[in-house]
Write a structure and sequence with these properties.
Helices cover 72% and strands 0% of the residues. With 109 residues, the protein is an all-alpha fold.
Length: 109
């Protein structure tokens, strides 16, 4: 392989430009990385706030659901205590009429 003064000069120029470009590119790389970190931290903060808001909504809905269940149980208890069942007239005084719980066989009309 023959010696070429042109390629030797290009090699020296490149070797001298690389440190110069590194001095210019390093601050640019640092600033870009810092901006990226700021974006990631902002996204983390945003998602943390959204998760917290969702957890608040979930807890409030759960409390509301439990409150509604407690009201329904209290209303059912109050209805069964306040309203006594009416006494039925017996058709046959010797035989009392049986009350079913609705699980018996139904007759076809």
């Amino acid at each position: 392989m023959a010696f070429s003064p042109l390629s030797f000069a290009l090699g020296l120029a490149t070797a001298s430009l690389v440190p110069l470009l590194a001095r210019v590119a390093r601050p640019l790389a640092v600033e870009t990385t810092a901006a990226g970190i700021a974006v990631v931290q902002g996204a983390q903060r945003f998602f943390a706030e959204q998760v917290e808001m969702f957890e608040d909504i979930w807890a409030e809905a759960q409390a509301r659901h439990e409150h509604m269940d407690a009201e329904a149980v209290a209303a059912a208890a109050a209805a069964s205590v306040d309203t006594p069942e009416p006494e039925e007239e017996l058709t046959d005084p010797g035989r009392a009429r049986r009350r079913g719980n609705g699980s018996g066989r139904r007759r076809a009309p």
